[in-house]
Amino acid sequence: MADAVGLRLRKALGLRRPAKHYIEKGELSGLGDAVVNYIASVSETIRGGIPTGKRVDNETLVKSVRESGLREKLAHRKDKHSLGDAAETLIAYAWVTGAVTLDECVETLLRSPSLQDGLTRILRLAIKKAGVT
Fold first, then answer.
1. Taking the domains of the chain in order of start, what are their residue ranges?
2. d(Cα 87, Cα 23) in Å, to the nearest integer?
3. Which of 5, 9, 30, 120 could crosslink 64 through cysteines, CB 3.0-4.6 Å?
4. Do the beta carbons of residue 96 and residue 106 sit within 8 Å?
5. Are 81 and 23 contacting, i.e. CB atoms less than 8 angstroms apart?
6. pLDDT tens, 22-42?
7. What is the residue-averaged pLDDT of the chain?
8. pLDDT of residue 78 exceeding 90
9. How far apart are CA 41 and CA 118, in angstroms?
10. Residue 10's pLDDT is what?
11. 120 vs 133, more confident
12. Number of C-alpha atoms within 13 angstroms, CB side, residue 99?
């Protein structure tokens, strides 16, 4: 179920195509960057009890793309930057379309032993729920 902000974004962005279209083009990577950093910051703040701003580095995203199986679903010629953009785009797309919630993402990170493992789990969930083939 999408939240109110996600629904407003979906309408504003006019998302009508399958996830794969947006992932291949990285069209939502800017929004996805903010979403990924937000969920990482929230989970780190909850764990540590101290407000924090977390920036997720591209290397972590790329490893998560490979471990989640997303890499195999993308065009073959993708550099590391494009792989990071694909992860960010998928997470943003999955949230905006209501396939996953931000609460689910934060809870997944909190239950995971590492940020990379949590992002891998979120990507697997998004692949499944957003119908990425």
1. 4-130
2. 8
3. 120
4. no
5. no
6. 998 888 999 999 999 999 999
7. 92
8. no
9. 13
10. 85
11. 120
12. 22
User: Which amino acid, 119?
Assistant: L
| 3-state secondary structure labels for all residues of the chain | CCCHHHHHHHHHHCCCCCHHHHHHHCCCHHHHHHHHHHHHHHHHHHHHCCCCCCCCCHHHHHHHHHHHCCHHHCCCCCCHHHHHHHHHHHHHHHHHCCCCCHHHHHHHHHHCCCHHHHHHHHHHHHHHHHCCC
The fourth-level CATH superfamily of domain 4-130 is Ribonuclease III (1.10.1520.20)
Angle at 107 between CA 124 and CA 93, to 5 degrees: 45
Contact 51, 111 (CB under 8 A): no
Could you give the CA distance from residue 56 to residue 33 in angstroms, rounded to a whole number? 8
What is d(CA 69, CA 106) in angstroms, rounded to the nearest whole number? Answer: 21
Q: 107: pLDDT confidence band, cut at 50, 70 and 90? A: very high
| pTM score of the predicted model | 0.93
